[in-house]
Amino acid sequence: VQLQASGGGLVQAGGSLRLSCTFSGRTFSSYAVGWFRQAPGKEREFLAAINWSGESTNYADSVKGRFTISRDNAKNTMYLQMNSLRPEDTAIYYCAAGRGVADPRGTYGYHYWGQGTQVTVSS
What we know:
mainly beta; seven-stranded mixed β-sheet; four-stranded antiparallel β-sheet
């Protein structure tokens, strides 16, 4: 399995970005997927997760109402729409996929990870 994240960049505070992550090598619709981020000197942080069908989502309090996770199983792609960005959202953003993820907020449940994409929010 390979995950390829894209869409990061530099944006001003209050702006928006949409991250994408393409999945290949297995049947995408068999996997739950999630987004995490890691800022320098900090642990990897859960942001959002979505189940295989897209019917169930889960968000961290820090991004609830600002970020939206979605997936298109026909395109083998997952997305993270990020609105009202803040300087504290600056980090490397990672997509992840796993089967039978018992705790979507934990990193250990995901078997596969993308390479990360940098998001920088200027004040």
